Amino acid sequence: MSWKPEIDELRRREELARRMGGPEKVERQHDHGKLTVRERIDALLDPGSFHEIGAIAGKFRPDGTFQPANFVFGRGRLDDRPVVVGGDDFTVRGGASDASIREKQIMAEQLAHELRVPLVRLVDGTGGGGSIRSLEEIGRTYVPANPGWEWVVANLGTVPVVALALGSVAGLGAARVAAAHYSMMVRGTSQVFAAGPPLVARLGQEVTKDELGGSDVHGRNGVVFDVVDSEAEAFARTRRFLSYLPQSVHQLPPHVETSDPPDRREDWLIEAIPRDRRRAYRIRPIIEAVVDQGSFLELGRGFGRSAVTGLARLGGWPVAVLAGDPMVYGGGMTADSSRKTEWFVDLAETFHLPVVHLVDQPGFVIGVEAERAGTMRFGVRALNAVYQAKVPWASVVLRRVFGVAGAAHTNAARAQYRYAWPSADWGSLPIEGGIEAAYRADLDAAEDREALLAEITAKMNALRSPFRTAEAFGIEEIIDPRDTRPLLCEFAELAAPLRAAGPTSWHFRG
Questions:
Q1: What's the CA gap between 335 and 225, in Å, rounded?
Q2: Which 8-state DSSP code applies to residue 254?
Q3: Keywords in UniProt for this one (predicted)?
């Protein structure tokens, strides 16, 4: 007597689960330009590598039909590296809590943590949060809690977590998107909000889903760090992001072979910075010129735009690249770029990524709006993150370093691995404008104010030469800009054995 009847029943139930919400709901999902959760998992993972867990979890309805739980998860491989992936099934009750089995979500988080492998969340719905309809079933209200959230928090300090908002995401689903190292939305099909338009309408605010929580909103405010044009692009960026990171904090970021010579020198870099200090320049071509060709993956381009953050490789070694963008607020530190810097340094520290900082920092953005945004508070948090970081750190001063914000270019208490281009310019504040504040009384008393101003300016300009600073060893080395890549590749080689696997004393805070 065999157990074949039970195996046949198991296969029947697995087949019912694979039907998800049924043909009509699947077709509706496709009509909205979205894949089903199972199609998403297949598109993300290496072919044939997905091992589902809890496939037959769900419930049989009174009419004998089967409603699977609206969360699908399991193990798989991504570029031949093990991962845990879990996704909401919007075809079953729109991802609502009354069709969820929360233990599946909790186990996905716990499994990633205990296996020490990356976690990818495919979020499309409320993500298991409460709903009014569920109260009828349980017969009471309840005090809110987030069972299993301790694993969400623990994962931020243990394994890489990527969250993709792939539809209308509300409540706990929105929290699951935000509680990740890297999060994305799909333009035109994703929305993220604490509560949707029907509830917001009760406040007298009539808005569409996109007006309330579309990608134009959250791609700029930092709730998510990137916006892509398709689910396929989201999956491709997920794979690329994870390729720079270790499986967990207990490992080190992997080295890859590169055909780009470490001693490559780009001749145009010698004229990359304009002599006219009032002229801006493009920072991204400079980044591309010094890192391994094609390796720069920018993160968070739409948020805190005066800071540029991304992952790259130098001689095949993964590094975190931070830079100022003089095309936006002159590269000045805003509240948002401070938050972005803190996030990025936390990411580098958590996953043992050496930091390369290409510095052009004129200082904190000033004015009424900057003060109302709390720029100093967030700027201090960014400065503190830099000073807390223990990962190897190299700074290259391209142009300006001024004031407290400029001091955030490195931890001054550490041995400095730092270079300056001959275009470097630094101080407590720029000479332009600062002279009139410092010499106001003299200028006001002068018979020829403009002549005295020109005289003082000429004297100060003679003092601002970076060579004067180098004479006093206030800057360690002034270099030919064309030597930047070879020197940074040397830094990456020297930094590689200094990286230490294991949890850090502080880690990603979200």
A1: 16
A2: P
A3: Transferase
Q: What is the dihedral of CA 257, 482, 383, 495, to 10 degrees?
A: 40
CATH topology (fold) of 4-243: 2-enoyl-CoA Hydratase; Chain A, domain 1 (3.90.226)
Say what the pTM is.
0.91
Which residue type does 349 have? E
Biggest CA–CA distance in the chain, Å, is 113
> What DSSP string describes 48-106?
T--EEESTT-EEE-TTS-EEE-SEEEEEEEETTEEEEEEEE-TTTGGG-GGG--HHHHH
Query: Residue by residue, what is the 3-state secondary structure of 295-330?
Result: CCEEECCCCCCCEEEEEEEECCEEEEEEEECCCCHH
Structure tokens at 410: 């490195």
Amino acid symbol at 170: A
Q: Which DSSP string corresponds to 449-476?
A: HHHHHHHHHHHHHHHT-HHHHHHTTSSS
Q: Which residue spans of the chain are classified as CATH 3.90.226.10?
A: 4-243, 267-424+475-498
Instruction: Indicate left, alpha or beta for 415 from its phi (over 0: left) and psi (-120 to 50: alpha).
Output: beta
DSSP state of 477: -
Tens of pLDDT along the chain (510 residues) come to 899 999 999 999 999 899 988 889 989 999 888 999 999 999 999 999 999 999 999 888 777 778 888 999 999 999 999 999 999 999 888 766 656 788 999 999 999 999 999 999 999 987 555 566 666 767 777 777 788 999 999 999 999 999 999 999 988 999 999 999 999 999 999 989 888 888 888 888 888 888 888 889 898 998 999 999 999 999 999 999 999 999 999 999 999 999 999 999 999 999 999 999 889 999 999 999 999 999 999 999 999 999 999 999 999 999 999 999 999 999 999 999 999 999 999 999 999 999 999 999 999 999 999 999 999 999 999 999 999 999 999 999 999 999 899 999 999 999 999 999 999 998 876 766 667 777 788 777 878 888 877 777 777 777 778 898 999 999 999 999 999 999 999 999 999 999 999 998 777 767
In this structure, whether the domain defined by 267-424+475-498 belongs to CATH 3.90.226.10 is answered with yes
Residues in the chain: 510
Is the Cβ–Cβ distance between 234 and 186 less than 8 Å?
yes
Q: How many CA atoms lie within 13 A of 326 on its CB side?
A: 21
